[in-house]
Design brief:
The structure holds two protein chains of two kinds.
Chain A (H helix, E strand, L loop, with lengths): L3 H8 L3 H33 L5 E6 L7 E2 L2 H6 L4 E9 L2 E2 L9 E4 L1 H7 L3 E2 L2 H9 L3 E5 H7 L6 E6 L4 E13 L9 E4 H7 L5 E2 L1 E6 L5 H11 L7 E5 H11 L1 H32 L1 H10 L3 H34 L14 H28 L2 H8 L1
Parallel strand pairs in A: 5-10, 7-9
Antiparallel strand pairs in A: 1-12, 1-13, 2-11, 3-5, 3-12, 4-8, 6-9, 7-10, 8-9
Helix pairs in contact in A: 1-12, 2-9, 2-10, 2-12, 2-13, 10-12, 10-13, 11-14, 12-13
Chain B lengths: L3 E12 L2 E13 L4 E5 L6 H9 L6 E6 L2 E2 L5 H11 E4 L11 H6 L9 H14 L15 H13 L5 E5 L7 H18 L2 E5 L3 H6 L2 E6 L2 E7 L3
Classes of the chains: A alpha+beta, B alpha/beta.
C-alpha cells in the first residue's frame, strides 16, 4: 500500500486518458455481461418447467391449433391427472410499442396447474367469476399503472377488433423464469366472440410421476396419430428448450460479439498502457537509479494496468448487475427473469484479470528490462 | 581503506562496428568523507565512471568496490538493493517525478525501506529542512524554480542516508545564484554531515568547492589536485 500514492499519481497523470480507458473496459464488460445474460436467461428458460408437466401441441407446428375437444380425451389417458389449455391471443395495447404476451386460458385449470403464479385468493375468485375479467402480471401494474377493477381495451391482431377486459387480479411469479408481464383472460370469452371455433393453442397436462412422462406422451400421440390434428407431446422443459434452440445461433453470435468487443478493448487498453510506460521511460530509469528493482517496476506497471481494468470491471459489471435489477429488465417480456448471474460476474472478473495481464505484461516487461544508462543518456 | 576503490577498470562500448575504449586500466580511490570533483571534456568518461560507481553500468573488466562491496560482481537485483541503501544520485536535469509533490519525490527512496509511515515522514521533513525547502513540501516540481528542484533532488538523494552521494552536472541547468546555493548545500552536507560526495562538473565554481579535483581526458586522469591534504 505504500506505493499507492505513486500508482495514483501515475494514473492521474493523464486523467482524461485514464478515464477513457477505464470507461472502455467498463463498457466492454457491461456489453459482455448483457450479451451473456441473454444467453443464460434463454438457457434458464429452457430449463424451466415442472418434470410433472407435459405440453401437447399440433404435430405440424405449435402455431396450428388443436380441437378443444381433445381435453376430455386427454384426461382419460392413464397417468394424466390435470389438463388445461391456452391460446395465443396477440393483443396490442395503445400504440403497441410495448409488447406483452396475451393468452386466453381455461382459467381454473390453468391456475391449478401453475401454482408458481401467486394470486391473492380474493382476486383469484373475482377473476374466475368474471368471464370478461383479466389476470395480469405484476410488471404490467408498474408499467401502465393499471389497477384491479380497471377496464383495459386491447386491439386484437389475430382476432380483430377491440377487446375490453376488466382487471380482476394480479399474479406474481414465484419462479423468475415465468413471465411477469403477461395478460390472461378467459378462453370462453375468446371462443364466444370468435364464433365458437373450439380451438386450443396447446395443452398442458399434469401427470402422476415424472418417470411416466415418455410413456404417457407416446400414448397421447399414438391416440391422435390418425386424427385430422395429430399431436406432439413432450415435457414442458423440452417444449421450452425447443424455443431456446431457435435462439441457438443468436447465442453463438452474441458470444462472438461479446468476445470481439472485449478483444477490441484489450487492444485499446494495451495501447494506452504501452503509451503510458513509454512516456515515462526517463522516470522509470530514475526509479531504477534510486534502487527500484526490475521486479518492483514490473509489479508497479502491472498494478497500474490492474487498477484500470479492475476499476473498469467493477463499474461495468456492477452497472450491468444493478441496472437490470433496478429496471426489472425483461426485454419487453421476451426474456423473463433476465438477470446478470453471479456466474457471469465471475466470468467477467476472469476476463478483467486476463485483460490486466494481456494489456500490462508487455509494458511491465519493458519497464523491468529498461537499460537504465541508455535510457538516461537518451533523455539527459 | 578507501570508500571507493576502482582497480584496473576497462570499459568498452561498441557502436555498430565501431569499438570505443572509454577506460583502459583506470584506477582510483575515493576516501570516506571526501568531496571530489571529476572534471574533463565531453566524452572523457566522467559520467561513465559515475555510472560504474553507482552500479548502473558494469566494467568490461576490472573491479569497482564501494565500502568493501564489489559492485561490479553483483546481480541486477543485488545492485538495486545496494543502490537503495548506499547511493544517492543527483542528475543534471533534476529528474523529479512531475506528478509527485516535493514531499512525495523525497519519499521515493524511503518506500524501499522498512520504515513506518511516521518514520518516513520524519526523515523527509529533516531532509527537506536540510535543503531549506521545508515550506515547499506540497509543491509540485512545476511550482518550483530550477534551484529549488535541484535541492529537492538532493534531499531525495540524501534522505535514505546513503554512503555516497553522486552528482552528475548538478549545476548544469542552474543560474549563477541557484548554482551557488546548491554548491553551498553540498559543501554543508560534506562538512556538517560527513557525506562522501563525488561530483561530475564542467563548472569551475563547482569544482572550486570540492576538496579534490580529478581531470579526466580520454579515459585517463591527467591531473589530480587537492586543496586539502
Amino acid at each position: 500500500m505504500k506505493f499507492w500514492s505513486l500508482l495514483r499519481a501515475n494514473l492521474g497523470r493523464h486523467k482524461r486518458r485514464t478515464f477513457l480507458t477505464i470507461a472502455s473496459v467498463a463498457l466492454a464488460l457491461f456489453l459482455f455481461a448483457s450479451l451473456r445474460s441473454v444467453i443464460t436467461t434463454i438457457g434458464m428458460a429452457a430449463q424451466f418447467g415442472s418434470a410433472r408437466r407435459l405440453v401437447t401441441t399440433n404435430a405440424t407446428g405449435f402455431v396450428l391449433p388443436l380441437p378443444v375437444s381433445y381435453a376430455n380425451r386427454l384426461e382419460t389417458v392413464p397417468g394424466v391427472e390435470k389438463v388445461t389449455w391456452a391460446n395465443w391471443f396477440g393483443g396490442r395495447y395503445g400504440d403497441g410499442k410495448r409488447f406483452f404476451a396475451t393468452f386466453a386460458v381455461d382459467a381454473k385449470s390453468y391456475l391449478d396447474i401453475y401454482p408458481e403464479m401467486s394470486v391473492p385468493a380474493d382476486q383469484k375468485e373475482a377473476f374466475l367469476q368474471d368471464k370478461g375479467g383479466a389476470l395480469i402480471g405484476v410488471r404490467l401494474v408498474n408499467l401502465f399503472g393499471w389497477k384491479v377493477g380497471q377496464n383495459v381495451t386491447l386491439q386484437g391482431t389475430i382476432f380483430p377488433g377491440d377487446w375490453t377486459f376488466t382487471i380482476r387480479g394480479v399474479y406474481t411469479p414465484t419462479d423468475p423464469a415465468i413471465n411477469d408481464d403477461a395478460l390472461m383472460f378467459h378462453y370462453d370469452y375468446l371462443d364466444e366472440r370468435a364464433g365458437r371455433p373450439g380451438n386450443a393453442g396447446w395443452y398442458i397436462l399434469e401427470i402422476d410421476k415424472p418417470d411416466n412422462a415418455a410413456q404417457i406422451a407416446k400414448t397421447i400421440d399414438d391416440q391422435f396419430r390418425s386424427s385430422s390434428a395429430p399431436t406432439k407431446t413432450g415435457t414442458e422443459q423440452a417444449f421450452n428448450a425447443s424455443f431456446a434452440t431457435m435462439w441457438g445461433n443468436i447465442g453463438l453470435l452474441m458470444n462472438t460479439i461479446g468476445l470481439a468487443v472485449v478483444f477490441a478493448i484489450l487492444l485499446v487498453t494495451a495501447n494506452a498502457m504501452m503509451m503510458s510506460a513509454r512516456e515515462r521511460t526517463r522516470e522509470l530509469a530514475v526509479l531504477k537509479t534510486i534502487g527500484y528493482s526490475d521486479r518492483l517496476l514490473f509489479g508497479l506497471v502491472l498494478a497500474e494496468a490492474g487498477l484500470i481494468t479492475i476499476t473498469g470491471a467493477v463499474l461495468g459489471l456492477g452497472a450491468a448487475k444493478l441496472l437490470y435489477r433496478a429496471t426489472n429488465f425483461n426485454a419487453a417480456g421476451f426474456l423473463p427473469g433476465f438477470d446478470v448471474s453471479w456466474g457471469t460476474m465471475a466470468t467477467g472478473g476472469v476476463i478483467a484479470l486476463v485483460l490486466m495481464l494481456a494489456s500490462g505484461i508487455v509494458p511491465a516487461m519493458q519497464a523491468a528490462r529498461l537499460p537504465v544508462v541508455t535510457a538516461l543518456r537518451s533523455v539527459e | 581503506m578507501a570508500l571507493v576503490e576502482i582497480r584496473d577498470v576497462y570499459k568498452t562500448f561498441t557502436r555498430g562496428a565501431e569499438r570505443i575504449d572509454v577506460f583502459t586500466g583506470l584506477t582510483l580511490d575515493v576516501e570516506q568523507g571526501s568531496f571530489t570533483a571529476l572534471m574533463g571534456p565531453s566524452g572523457s568518461g566522467k559520467s561513465t565512471l559515475l555510472n560504474l560507481i553507482a552500479g548502473l553500468d558494469r566494467p568490461t573488466s576490472g573491479t569497482v568496490r564501494v565500502n568493501g562491496a564489489e559492485v561490479s560482481a553483483m546481480t541486477p537485483a543485488q545492485l538495486a538493493t545496494w543502490r537503495s541503501e548506499h547511493v544517492g544520485f543527483v542528475f543534471q536535469s533534476f529528474n523529479l517525478l512531475p506528478v509527485l509533490t516535493a514531499f512525495q519525490n523525497v519519499e521515493l527512496p524511503l518506500l524501499l525501506t522498512r520504515l513506518s509511515k511516521r518514520e518516513r515522514d520524519e526523515r523527509i521533513r529533516i531532509a527537506l529542512g536540510v535543503v531549506g525547502l521545508d515550506d515547499r513540501m506540497d509543491h509540485y516540481p512545476r511550482q518550483l524554480s530550477g534551484g529549488q528542484e535541484q535541492r529537492v533532488a538532493i534531499a531525495r538523494a540524501i534522505v535514505a542516508d546513503p554512503t555516497l552521494v553522486l552528482l552528475d552536472e548538478p549545476t548544469g541547468q542552474l543560474d549563477a545564484k541557484s548554482s551557488q546555493e546548491v554548491l553551498t548545500l553540498l559543501a554543508r552536507l560534506n562538512d556538517e554531515f560527513g557525506k562522501t560526495i563525488l561530483i561530475v562538473t564542467h563548472d569551475p565554481a563547482a569544482s572550486g568547492r570540492a576538496r579534490r579535483q580529478l581531470h579526466l581526458e580520454k579515459g585517463t586522469f591527467v591531473e589530480q589536485g587537492s586543496l586539502v591534504p
